[in-house]
């Protein structure tokens, strides 16, 4: 076939295919233009999910008459510096021919007025055909009206979803931009109702949490910790939900780079790495993080829709995110999400006697020093949380001799144990229900990590070595890693073709389920592969050890043991959730309980 140049109309429609994927793409481009124009109020109106109408109105700087034809011309922009340096972009551009692409597939009208102009000017474009600018009436700012989207390329209409789905995509775009700019007011209307209405705050940073709570949900403000750090000219700010406040998908993870909403694999991977220790499989944290760095330190032209970026020093950015999130979560102490307490109260039905434990919350993050933990029978070092002393079964589950002063602790004073599994404690303004196994599992896990960081896990020699029978392949995997396992406190060796003998175990595990631990480790090693060092899978190994070495459900605890567990939880970061991401306790306020019984 003969090579030929394509007509301008076809070229524009091809460019539109890169930029205008759906109505939300049009909204994104028009709203970003309004933000770059210095708008303080941006109003968006749509009809039929954006197919029939998209209108974006702003109070920005506006455009002069002569600028209107340039605005819809290819290779014309106001988004670049005067030297046209593509590596130094400080606006929300620059990739793709936004307005020309939109004009090529719709009926577009732009009405704009500058502050010192006598009147506004209007320019209409239909399917790429441009009219002459004409006078119009409008206050300072710009209105972009897009009608009959894709009328020039009707095949694209077949790929659009329902009106509700397309409106949802539009709302998501505006919500993300509104999170980045809480100093700008945003509204989204579908013709019959306000889908989003966000008022402007006086300060960009001070109003950020309120804007995030408006969009993500009021519970986010109650269950988020502030993140702030800076390294080598890169600044990270934002808010991250505590681990027990999580979602089934990653949709509630909002990431911004220099005010630009992005969906970046590097950033998403850094978030997963930071929460790896705290959230179980299938759950995802909720957060909004804002990265600011010099424009020449990143490339914003990676993706036509400008949703991805490339960092000059990606390793440093990833390390900054992971480290900052871990520090912020550690500072949250033993907090757990308030939403779980609300769920627990919702599960109580007056008169039916049922109760579904859910996830707790305590707003305080006070770390109580070890001096607060009593020297107890069988628990001389509560930090080790070994609970090795033999326990005499108590005569009853009710604790009657606990001093009232203990109720001033965040997790209160133990008042009893029910079903041999849950500790019930009384606080100054409510009650706390603790899952003893889940809580102790987290304590042991955190201690194991601290021991490894300080030089190694203390070991205890078994008076009678334990023989564990396994498949020959499992024995081979364990014996090949016996030196690495010894660093973790587990000393074993082969004992014939189908067994291993355990000679030493981590001291902090006490009389845990050693056979179950060894079998689970053998299975995990099969998944890790021979080339992966156990240090790289430290969290999984420590988690397995902690689980098998923790006080089991069904074990009766004495009053001093229950209270020792509560005090140690208060002193241990991340104790609001176990190693699998499940809650360790819930807190019910007395006022809420009284409402259940009609006392309020």
Q: How many discrete structural domains?
A: 3
CATH fold title of the largest domain? Ribosomal Protein S8, Chain: A, domain 1
So, the CATH homologous superfamily of the largest domain? MutL, C-terminal domain, regulatory subdomain
* Distance N to C terminus: 83 Å
Shape estimate: elongated
Mind telling me which CATH architecture of the largest domain this is? 2-Layer Sandwich
Task: Please give the radius of gyration in angstroms.
Answer: 30 Å
Helix share bin:
25-40%
* Number of discrete helical segments: 17
Q: What can be said about the biggest beta sheet?
A: 9 strands, mixed
| CATH C-level of the largest domain | Alpha Beta
Portion of residues in beta strands equals 15-25%
Number of strands: 25
Which ranges are low-confidence, i.e. pLDDT below 50, for 5 or more consecutive residues? 352-396
Oligomer: single chain
Estimated structural class: alpha+beta
- Which whole number gives the mean pLDDT? 81
Describe this structure in words.
This protein is of the alpha+beta class. The protein folds into 3 domains: 8-198, Heat Shock Protein 90; 208-331, Ribosomal Protein S5, domain 2, CATH 3.30.230; 353-600, MutL, C-terminal domain, regulatory subdomain (Ribosomal Protein S8, Chain: A, domain 1). It has 17 helices and 25 strands. The strands form 6 sheets. Strands 1, 2, 3, 4, 5, 6, 7, 8 and 9 form a 9-stranded mixed β-sheet that branches. It has a 5-stranded mixed β-sheet with strand order 10-11-16-13-14, sandwiched between helices. Strands 19-20-21-25 form a 4-stranded antiparallel β-sheet. A hairpin with a 2-residue loop joins strand 13 and strand 14. Helix 14 packs antiparallel against helix 15.
């Amino acid at each position: 076939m003969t090579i030929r140049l394509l007509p301008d109309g076809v070229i524009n429609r091809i460019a539109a295919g890169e930029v205008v994927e759906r109505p939300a793409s049009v909204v994104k481009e028009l709203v970003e233009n309004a933000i770059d124009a210095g708008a303080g109020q941006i109003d968006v109106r749509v009809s039929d999910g954006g197919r029939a109408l998209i209108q974006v109105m702003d109070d920005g700087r506006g455009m002069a008459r002569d600028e209107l034809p340039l605005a819809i011309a290819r290779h014309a922009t106001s988004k670049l510096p005067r030297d046209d340096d593509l590596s130094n972009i400080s606006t929300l551009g620059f990739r793709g021919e936004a307005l020309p692409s939109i004009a090529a597939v719709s009926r577009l009208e732009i009405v704009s007025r500058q502050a010192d102009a006598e009147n506004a000017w209007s320019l209409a474009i239909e399917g790429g055909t441009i009219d002459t600018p004409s006078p119009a009436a409008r206050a300072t700012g710009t209105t972009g009206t897009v009608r009959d989207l894709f009328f020039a390329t009707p095949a694209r209409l077949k790929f659009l979803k329902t009106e509700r789905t397309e409106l949802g995509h539009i709302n998501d775009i505006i919500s993300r931009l509104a999170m980045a700019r809480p100093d700008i007011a945003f509204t989204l209307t579908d013709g019959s109702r306000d889908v989003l209405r966000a008022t402007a705050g006086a300060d960009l940073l001070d109003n950020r949490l309120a804007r995030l709570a408006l969009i993500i949900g009021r519970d986010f403000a109650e269950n988020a910790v502030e993140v702030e750090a800076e390294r080598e000219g890169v600044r990270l700010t934002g808010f991250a939900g505590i681990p027990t406040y999580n979602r089934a998908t990653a949709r509630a993870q909002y990431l911004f780079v220099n005010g630009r909403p992005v969906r970046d694999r590097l950033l998403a991977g850094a978030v997963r790495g930071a929460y790896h220790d705290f959230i179980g499989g299938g759950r995802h944290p909720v957060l909004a993080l804002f990265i600011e760095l010099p424009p020449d330190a990143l490339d914003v032209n990676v993706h036509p829709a400008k949703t991805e970026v490339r960092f000059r020093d990606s390793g440093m950015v990833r390390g900054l995110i992971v480290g900052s999130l871990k520090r912020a979560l550690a500072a949250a102490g033993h907090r757990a999400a308030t939403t779980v307490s609300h769920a627990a109260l919702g599960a109580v039905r007056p008169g039916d006697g049922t109760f579904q434990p859910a996830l707790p919350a305590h707003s305080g993050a006070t770390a109580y020093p070890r001096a607060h933990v009593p020297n107890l029978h069988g628990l001389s070092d509560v930090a080790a949380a070994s609970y090795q002393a033999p326990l005499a079964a108590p005569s009853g589950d009710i604790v009657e001799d606990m001093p009232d002063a203990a109720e001033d602790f965040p997790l209160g004073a133990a008042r009893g144990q029910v079903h041999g599994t849950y500790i019930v404690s009384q606080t100054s303004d409510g009650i706390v229900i603790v899952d003893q196994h889940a809580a102790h599992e987290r304590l042991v896990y955190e201690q194991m990590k601290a021991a490894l960081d300080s030089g190694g896990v203390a070991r205890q020699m078994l008076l009678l070595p334990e023989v564990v029978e396994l498949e020959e392949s499992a024995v081979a995997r364990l014996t090949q890693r016996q030196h690495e396992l010894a660093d973790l406190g587990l000393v074993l060796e082969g004992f014939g073709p189908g067994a291993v003998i355990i000679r030493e175990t981590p001291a902090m595990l006490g009389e845990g389920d050693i056979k179950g631990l060894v079998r689970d480790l053998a299975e995990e090693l099969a998944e890790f592969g021979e080339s992966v060092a156990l240090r790289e899978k430290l969290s999984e190994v420590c988690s397995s050890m902690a689980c098998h070495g923790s006080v089991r459900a069904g074990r009766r605890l004495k009053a001093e043991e229950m209270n020792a567990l509560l005090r140690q939880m208060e002193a241990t970061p991340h104790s609001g959730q176990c190693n699998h991401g499940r809650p360790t306790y819930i807190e019910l306020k007395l006022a809420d309980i009284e409402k259940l019984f009609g006392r309020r």
